[in-house]
Amino acid sequence: MDVDIKDLSSLIGKEIGMSNWVEISQERVNQFAEATGDHQWIHVDVERATKEIGGPIAHGYLTLSLIPFLSAGMLNVKGVVRGINYGSDKVRFTNMVRVGKKVRLRQKLIGAEPKAGGMQIKNECTIEIEGEDRPACVAETISIIYTA
Questions:
Q1: 73-83 pLDDT, tens digit each
Q2: What are phi and psi of 61, to 5 degrees?
Q3: pTM tops 0.90
């Protein structure tokens, strides 16, 4: 979706996009464990996780960290030269993502206001799991975008 920065407020409350499905592989989970030092067995010990909980699951923070990747290109604000992550509100992990499942992002704009010489935008981000009724994660993310 393409929009001028001055028109962002007209999109508040509207869904701005949905990503493609992305598979959560064991390799991705292992790489996240290496990057963060979180090697809890429920994520990386396939044999034990399969025996005790039906299979390994993705880290909640791995799921959350996919938001920038999944949202890329969803909302193209004309003239933006850079954007920064400002924070998150109300992050909830509402369902576990089993390794081998696919996830996608559904995003809704819930706020847009001038801030720090740019425009602060707030999105409701819902990460859905293919074939599941409950999403993996619901988070309100905050970014600031800047124009030239």
A1: 898 899 899 99
A2: -70, -25
A3: yes
